[in-house]
Amino acid sequence: MKPLTDRQQDILTFIERSLLQDGFPPTIAEIAAAFGVRSTNSIRGHLQALARKGAIELVPAASRGIRLLKATPSPEQGLPLVGRVAAGQPILAEEHIEGYCRLGPELFDHRADYLLRVQGMSMRDAGILDGDLLAVQRTPEARNGQIVVARIHDEATVKRLRLEGVKAFLEPANPDFAIIEVDLQREQLVIEGVVVGVIRSGL
Amino acid sequence: MKPLTDRQQDILTFIERSLLQDGFPPTIAEIAAAFGVRSTNSIRGHLQALARKGAIELVPAASRGIRLLKATPSPEQGLPLVGRVAAGQPILAEEHIEGYCRLGPELFDHRADYLLRVQGMSMRDAGILDGDLLAVQRTPEARNGQIVVARIHDEATVKRLRLEGVKAFLEPANPDFAIIEVDLQREQLVIEGVVVGVIRSGL
DNA sequence: CACTATACTGCTTATAAAAGCAGTAACCAT
DNA sequence: ATGGTTACTGCTTTTATAAGCAGTATAGTG
């Protein structure tokens, strides 16, 4: 991150204190008033600079649309919740992160690194339903029979892994879906992580 | 503090989650949109009720001027995890509490009060398996079709609730188990809470 | 020198958002 | 019945706020 100017640092500190005191971020006009500046435009420039440098995020057209990125208001921000995973992009790319869930990574038997929202019913019989959140541990290694997050043909999928010699099978837990067969000598199978837990909130 | 209505509780939870995800509170219009309500006025009423009951504070004439007063109930220790429930004893009796799980009660669509460990496979087809943790909201009211924690003959059980006149049916989600029929005129059915989420950690 | 970044003034404009007013309807308690 | 609370619709008005445009001044840099 590029270094902040003194003025930018002061403004950032003011935003953090406002957030703690008021419970919500200040408006641009409030910042200007606090610094004795008569024009909001100056502050806007500073905010845009802070956004460029990655210190904050500005939500367009939203009042008080300032989001602190680096400084976490609560010490533990929780696990990142990943939504749709686009083809050809890493899972933890920032644009996929829908939010953060405050839960301890040690809640599960194995440490979870992030949460992934399930799409579809292909793992129904394993008790994994559409819309569930999967707690995923980020690891390239998976054992036979584990439920994994795999990437095949640039598409992310959740299946049970079965390894037999040079072939890998990605087995759904639902007879309505087909087993995906991968010839490891010709195709690439990337294991993004193993599923260590399930969370369902839509009840 | 006066008890909140279901609607008020839902809105409070939504505000908490917005705050965690966005970094600032929602506008009244955003809350209305999230709940599919066409008039912002209804939400204003709810917010004023929440302010009257001391759950939030409203900053007049300020956009997103919602301040949470009651910080999340157990910020440090998390939700209590209840193990086996003995006959004739309240669920949250201290001797049943196995431990505390560090997760925010606002993680689920409705606020969870405690976690309960599932015994048996009677709700298998609802994606609830043996050993899962259920997030339970403590309420004596349940709607038709909700999965509830009920107490019948001094024994706690998790089933889907179906109400038909003076009879209540506790339906398992597994053809291997029998439906429990309760005549409300002769027997007492105590609803301990409704299931608002599922957590599975043994994967 | 031209060129860029920082830091500001002083307006205007568009819109986001709170606040107000007048209703309807259901439910509950007295 | 009567009043209170909850829960909503559908408008209008007012103000809070972001965003845009046109400038000024200072300092550093190749």
TrEMBL record, chains A, B:
Keyword list, A-Z? Autocatalytic cleavage, DNA damage, DNA repair, DNA replication, DNA-binding, Hydrolase, Repressor, SOS response, Transcription, Transcription regulation
- Which EC number applies? 3.4.21.88
Peptidase S24/S26A/S26B/S26C domain residues: 80-196
Catalytic activity, as annotated = Hydrolysis of Ala-|-Gly bond in repressor LexA
Show where the LexA repressor DNA-binding domain sits: 1-65
Residue ranges flagged as DNA-binding region? 28-48
Q: Which Pfam families is this protein grouped with?
A: LexA_DNA_bind (PF01726), Peptidase_S24 (PF00717)
Q: What GO terms are given for molecular function?
A: serine-type endopeptidase activity
Residue(s) at site: Cleavage: A87, G88
Give the protein's biological function.
Represses a number of genes involved in the response to DNA damage (SOS response), including recA and lexA. In the presence of single-stranded DNA, RecA interacts with LexA causing an autocatalytic cleavage which disrupts the DNA-binding part of LexA, leading to derepression of the SOS regulon and eventually DNA repair.
HAMAP family in UniProt: LexA
What NCBIfam families does the annotation carry?
lexA
Which family is it part of?
Answer: Belongs to the peptidase S24 family.
Query: What is the name of this protein?
Result: LexA repressor
What gene name does this entry carry? lexA
